[in-house]
């Protein structure tokens, strides 16, 4: 009995003491010792597994029909049926497109045919283009732009010609029209500002109010020029000239404020282009004018700006004028102003040399014309010679007045007055003359 129990434990993997005991007992009995466990009977094993297999087979049912399937409770999402909504939207869109098409056809039918170039049987999609369809428009706009640029150049050339003949009022109209044709052009805007400011000392401007208005117009164009190109020297030069001249006809407080703004514009002009002769000339004019201010203005400058706006000196003005003359030896105004300062500093030989050299320079505009008169007057005073002040009316205006008084049929056309310009009047014949000159210049080129 004990042997059978030990063999049973050995077969089931008994502990090591029992295993050794079983082996010794089996060896004592004389029977062969088996170290392999006993395998169960196959029939008994199949009978024991039959019931679990049946239970598993009962759980695996046949797949349910599609209509009997239940959606997962956590993801119970069903796609909505949007067919009616899509149909309604398509109907609305179709109606809108049909209405647009009918309206477009009416517009296309109402548009006149351009010189017969549009055939009557042209398809609708070719005869009418939507606003964002740029085909056929770019070439026309480019052609119009080229024509505007060409006309603006002709007006610029005519404006410079009027400047040389001292007809500043006609030059104003030329440069204003050029600004209208080519908006944002720095040369045209700066020249319009210059010409408006040059009217300050024109012969038909007799009141301080008119002198203020012409310089306010000049400031307007100068500010547009700076807005178009902040780093261009021309806008800052024009703004400095306009504010400096405007300061001459204002009260003391405004005069000091404009003097400060003119100084900043002159500094900015030199910063933009250190080689610009006019910028250095303006800095010299600022030093010269500030050196001559009276005690009241000096006190007001000290109260308003302290040491930030120190009065200039004649020596600083002379240095700036000489630098401007070095940069542009052919410009008359630099030599005249340098000669003036030399004389005031007691340097008579240097001043006379500068003034005599200035008389050899060309008169390029109304400013040079007036400055040349100053040079002749100063030389006459130094030499103690009599001096007769010439007429301040430009030669072209004298010719026009003489021809009109004589009733000549071929009298030159006179430009309108400065007061008429300020009121908004213009002369279309000036632009027409520029157009004719541009056409005459293009004719030989096209023939060649």
From TrEMBL:
PROSITE patterns the record matches: TPR
Disordered: annotated span: 55-80
Assigned keywords, A-Z: TPR repeat
SUPFAM superfamilies recorded: TPR-like (SSF48452)
A Pfam family per the record: RMD1-3
Cross-referenced Gene3D superfamilies: Tetratricopeptide repeat domain (1.25.40.10)
UniProt-recorded name of the protein: Tetratricopeptide repeat
Keyword Transport attached: no
TPR repeats: from-to residues: 152-185
Keyword Lyase among record annotations: no
